[in-house]
Amino acid sequence: MYLRSPWICLGLSTALLMAGGCSPDEKHPQASLKERTAAFEKSLDSIQDPALKDAVADLGGSLLLLERARIRLQDRAIETEYGTDELAQLKHYPNSQALSDTYLNGLFVVRKNSSSDYLTDLEPVFPFSQSNTSYFPFPHALEWQSVTLSNKQVVPFQAEWSETDSGIQLSPSSANLSNPDDLTITYPIVDGVQTTNSQQPQPITLHGEAEVIAPGKVVNFTLTRKDVGRTLSDANISVTLLSLGKNFAEVDINNSAPLAEEVRDTDLNPLIIQARDSTGQFLSRAGSIEENTEQVAFYQQQLAQMLKQTAWSDALSQKLDDEQKAFDSKHPNHYSKVYFNGEIENVDISVLDFSTANVTRKTLDLPVWPLDKNIVGKEVTPLPLSVVVYDDQAASYLKDATLAPEKLKKSVVISQSVDEASAATLEFSHPPTFNDELVGELPDSTVSPVTFFAEDVNGKRGEPLELPIEAFDTNPKTGVITYDLNLFPETPTYAIGSMPLFVATVDKQSLDVARLPKGLELKGNALIVDQALFPADAWRFYAKDDTGNYLKEVLAVSHSAKLYGPTLFNVHYFYGQPTHLESYARTALTPVEYGFEVKLDKVPEVAPPH
């Protein structure tokens, strides 16, 4: 059936869903979301026409999801969590087109070893971090078409693996949820016999098409609470900060210039809203609402019209489309309400101006590099890359190479779980730092004493409980204490003890790439590190170029002489040519005793069966 994209792309909304053609404000002002959901489902069940039922389900269901998300966001506790500058990479390039070209030209593919005899995995590697959804800020699309094998066979890409296809297949990987862009080449089982991958034709080139839309310019505004209600302008772009709460910003933007002709039929989000707290660090996003009350009221009206119909028709579809276009033409502004994890001091608003735009399309014929994380053999594969990409998080991350014990102790968070009485837990954790990377393997002799106490008649800490040795277990290496309440003579109320933490003493050195010490070798953009002299558990290396910025490490590969043998050397590949190196080495390990007294959570009571 025909569905209009706005129904599918609704953001998080402040609207109340209309149920049965009537607003809950009119009939059920105190109705809960659960009650309104039930009312809507009842209305939906009464629709006989399948096409109309699908359309109503899409729009009404979207509005319900938006209301649920709105409630979740507004009731969310404010807990500080930091993110990264979403436009940091743009600052390293002369214009938006250069950033687009870097994305397209920096993409490559590696072949990964698989534990299966009839699967080969391909991993597309992108030049910009994919740690969040906005890793590359410009609209882009990537479509794989086929792979050429070593026997010159071309295998077309298919959206999913087919049980009935007896040939070699190329499809998205279903095994790696952490890398959704991975692909899998599936080799057939012939006459019940699996042929090992090494005897199968190997992938040589991956083919596809890519497209990037670069805005003609990016306009930036930095706003504070004094700017609430003000409209600021830069040429054809105007921004209004409608409201600014503790953890949210509500913004409206307008571009008085029309969209470039080549992108007028493209769904574009021109607005990037970021926030910083009093420390100047960027706060991570908790969620966003992309429709204002006028937009939601419009969708409610359309839903009401649909609920009055008995069948879907082309005439109804056209009427709703015309109304959508008329509404959009009268409301050209772009609205967004963004919630953040932390209290806001400043709001950074970036507007992508698509009144002029560069649409770059590229045919991709990417060689497949045999660069799995573990390689048997001493031959180093060169990985020439034509682009330069910087690691903007490195400088901040490396500040914690030296970590004061008191700072570590203050960052510890204790979390409890009593869902299972036989395996209740106390977990000691802290935000990861660079220093943690160099702590390495903890000594086996580490101990973590803990004593459990019951509650006395006055509700205070009583005498220590005498427990069998199997009643609890402490694991300093994971920072977890597990205890079995079934083996306790009384319900414990307090736990007192000490959990060992460790801080590494780190020695930082600057290295001249022209005079590297024995065990280090730079070949192009690849740094080769001898593991006998610079073992990975105690050493880290970072690279800079002549700009003074840290280069992004593309990937790291370990080489060994035989399968499952010890690592001989590691190879670190960079996006760019290193001209300066920094080494960080652990020279000592200092124990830090973290003393604690915790009031224990009670096991939730289970209601008796009726």
Automatic annotation (TrEMBL):
It comes from the Bacteria. This is Lipoprotein. The lineage of its organism: Bacteria, Pseudomonadati, Pseudomonadota, Gammaproteobacteria, Pseudomonadales.
